[in-house]
Design a protein that fits this description.
Layout: H1 2-17, H2 24-41, H3 45-57, H4 61-73, H5 81-93, H6 97-109, H7 117-129, H8 133-145, H9 153-165, H10 169-181, H11 189-202, H12 205-217, H13 225-237, H14 241-253, H15 261-273, H16 277-289, H17 297-309, H18 313-321
Length: 322
């Protein structure tokens, strides 16, 4: 986040360094941004937050976008989805593509306000048109899955292609999948192989997870548990917690593999450690009941709380009667 902040301030710093004539109000804003960056660098986060709030309240949409980022991430100031949504709304309205994409995530999750799936798609589509690689990747997934938009492999291909041009390894991975299957593009195993090599270099853990889910659930293609396990294993090896969780579920249910509760628990523990809220809920259930893990109601409650925080409804329901 601090690196992102530094990049956002870079242009302003260059203006001063070049000695250009600028309006006094703009000069003051640049000085304030520089002070905020210095405060961040010195880990004086409260001071930095105060400076940004003053700028944002004065109508500076760039400061609003930065505030939205840091409130959403909760890494340098306390996480506050309500405030994140307030400031991201302002930045998005001013045409900030990154703010649009981040706001779409909050809307999808229902964090900081009601869930608004259709508006989230609209925001991501606008952000994608403005060149946001993350939004282009998400729009590709929406079109490939038919999520809140028409299923359209050709359109998905175009979104993934645009995102991949920005070095998004996840998009390259999904492009490889489309070339491999001949979905929305002429089939080409050679291009698929080349894209996967590049994807691995750029990081493609989420893309591998998404391909695994496609085979696991039969999304647009026949189910293939062997390929699902392969791709989920690749995603897990590259650090995707949701892929780890899915592998655990497969071992619990014996989906394409032998039932192995010990392996399942190991995967759930790894996924939870990486932050997967669904794995946390599963582990909470086991700690509550003592199935596969020693009974520990304190650990169970803590995991329910962490899971509920990220929108797992079953965890919320458990907490209501815990």
């Amino acid at each position: 986040m601090v690196r992102n902040f530094a990049r956002k301030c870079l242009a302003s710093s260059l203006v001063l360094a070049m000695g250009l004539c600028i309006l006094p109000s703009l000069a003051r804003e640049i000085i304030e941004f520089r002070k905020a960056k210095q405060a961040f660098d010195a880990k004086h986060y409260v001071e930095a937050e105060k400076i940004l709030l003053n700028l944002a309240n004065a109508g500076n949409t760039r400061a609003a976008g930065i505030l939205g980022d840091i409130y959403m991430e909760g890494k340098v100031v306390p996480q506050n989805y309500i405030m994140a949504r307030v400031w991201l709304e302002k930045a998005a309205a001013a045409g900030d593509a990154k703010a649009m994409n981040n706001l779409a995530w909050l809307l999808n999750m229902g964090f900081g306000g009601p869930q608004e799936h259709k508006r989230a798609v609209s925001l991501r589509e606008r952000a994608a048109a403005l060149g946001n690689f993350g939004a282009q990747y998400k729009m590709g997934l929406y079109c490939m899955r038919g999520i809140d938009t028409k299923l359209d492999y050709s359109r998905a291909f175009k979104f993934f292609e645009s995102s991949a041009k920005g070095g998004n390894g996840n998009a390259e991975c999904l492009l490889a999948h489309l070339y491999e299957r001949g979905m929305g593009v002429l089939k080409s195993p050679e291009k698929a192989a080349t894209l996967m090599k590049s994807a691995k270099l750029h990081g493609c853990a989420d893309g591998e997870y998404q391909v695994g889910r496609t085979y696991l659930l039969g999304l647009g293609i026949p189910k293939d548990y062997g390929k699902a396990y392969y791709w989920l294993s690749e995603g897990a090896a590259d650090g995707n917690p949701h892929a780890m969780n899915e592998l655990g579920v497969m071992h619990v249910n014996g989906t394409g593999v032998k039932v192995d509760d010990k392996k399942a628990v190991d995967w759930f523990l790894k996924a939870a450690k990486k932050g997967c809220p669904f794995a946390k809920y599963t582990l909470a259930e086991r700690y509550r009941t003592g199935v596969g893990l020693p009974q520990d109601l304190k650990k169970a409650k803590s995991l329910y709380e962490e899971s509920a925080k990220f929108g797992v409804e079953e965890a919320r329901q458990r907490l209501n009667v815990f």
